[in-house]
């Protein structure tokens, strides 16, 4: 995530799948760098509204997710370097969850509703 001016911080959103934090326009312009293959957010403002949230807690900056114990703890290893939310509040549409599973992934809510022993 590049520098976000103070007047743009209210446009920050977190992906409900991977929890990366970007400004809304970047999600629309580029999609999610981790989840684009199954979310298809690029050039789809409605998808960005459905699959990202303005309600999130805490921020983690990861320079090398593959080497970070924090990335493993937050299930972020394998993702691109960037800024991630610790907790993301929101509910993905069932269709989106099915798309994730069809692509071979497993959706783990980022709002804390799944415990470590469940995942």
Present the secondary structure layout.
Blueprint: E1 12-15, E2 21-23, H1 24-30, H2 36-39, H3 45-51, E3 52-53, E4 56-62, H4 69-73, E5 82-88, H5 94-102
Antiparallel strand pairs: 1-2, 1-3, 4-5
Query: Biggest sheet, in brief?
Result: 3 strands, antiparallel
Secondary structure tally, helices: 5
How are the strands ordered across the major sheet? Answer: 2-1-3
Uncertain spans: 115-119
Percent range for β-strand residues: 15-25%
The secondary-structure element order is EEHHHEEHEH
Name the quaternary structure: single chain
- Name the average pLDDT: 89
Fraction of residues in helices? 25-40%
Number of strands: 5
Shape: globular
Question: Given the helix and strand composition, which structural class is it?
Answer: alpha+beta
Radius of gyration: 13 Å
Give the N-terminus to C-terminus distance in angstroms. 28 Å
